[in-house]
């Protein structure tokens, strides 16, 4: 599966990114349908595909299958949320030097933000995203933290990747 993040642009208007996300999701559905068809044909020939093995594993151990599906759904949701956070921060390129992401075990997206100039006004502009995001129900399932981090300590902060 292709990551949503790889195909969207922070410079496109929201509607264009929305349309692009819908197209990508449609492509995933088309790919999944092809995989289902291939699995059916291969099963008739007595052979397995990756999807066939996953289905058999899900039948044998359904709770593990549910957990695996949850992880896949979380990954897609994290990509979409990261797209919006990253777009927001890129629009603040006059104050944001860098941003680093770490996904915590509780589905929390943790961002270390390095400001070009650490001022009260710049901190308020960063915190506005968190205030707005927390008004949505999704924030309960996928919390986001934007933490201002001094450049001098960013190397000691654990993160998965630099997003800006």
Distance between the termini: 23 Å
Uncertain runs are 1-12
Cα radius of gyration in angstroms: 20 Å
User: What order do the strands of the largest sheet run in, or round the barrel if closed?
Assistant: 3-2-1-4
Quick one: overall form? elongated
Beta-strand content estimate: 5-15%
Percent helix, as a range, is 40-55%
| Average pLDDT level | 85
Number of strands: 4
Sheet with the most strands? 4 strands, mixed
Number of helices: 5
The class by helix and strand makeup works out as alpha+beta
Order of helices and strands: HHHEEHHEE
Care to describe what's here?
This protein is of the alpha+beta class and 164 residues long. Helices cover 54% and strands 13% of the residues. The chain has five helices and four strands, in the order αααββααββ. The chain has helices spanning 14-44, 50-60, 62-90, 120-133, 138-141; strands at 96-103, 109-115, 144-148, 161-162. The protein has a four-stranded mixed beta sheet with strand order 3-2-1-4, with helices on one face. It is elongated. Residues 1-12 have low confidence and may be disordered.
Helix and strand arrangement:
Blueprint: H1 14-44, H2 50-60, H3 62-90, E1 96-103, E2 109-115, H4 120-133, H5 138-141, E3 144-148, E4 161-162
Parallel strand pairs: 2-3
Antiparallel strand pairs: 1-2, 1-4
């Amino acid at each position: 599966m292709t990551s949503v993040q790889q195909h969207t642009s922070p410079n496109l208007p929201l509607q264009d990114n929305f349309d692009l996300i819908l197209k990508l999701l449609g492509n995933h559905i088309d790919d999944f349908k092809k995989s289902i068809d291939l699995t059916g044909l291969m099963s008739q020939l007595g052979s397995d595909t990756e999807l066939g093995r996953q289905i058999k594993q899900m039948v044998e151990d359904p709770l593990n299958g549910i957990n695996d599906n949850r992880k896949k759904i979380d990954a897609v949701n994290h990509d979409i949320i990261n797209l919006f956070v990253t777009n927001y921060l890129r629009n603040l390129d006059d104050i944001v030097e860098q941003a680093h992401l770490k996904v915590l075990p509780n589905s929390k997206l943790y961002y270390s933000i390095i400001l070009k100039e650490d001022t009260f006004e710049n901190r308020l502009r960063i915190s506005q995203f968190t205030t707005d995001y927390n008004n949505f129900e999704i924030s309960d399932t996928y919390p986001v933290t934007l933490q201002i981090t001094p450049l001098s300590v960013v190397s000691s902060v654990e993160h998965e990747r630099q997003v800006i």
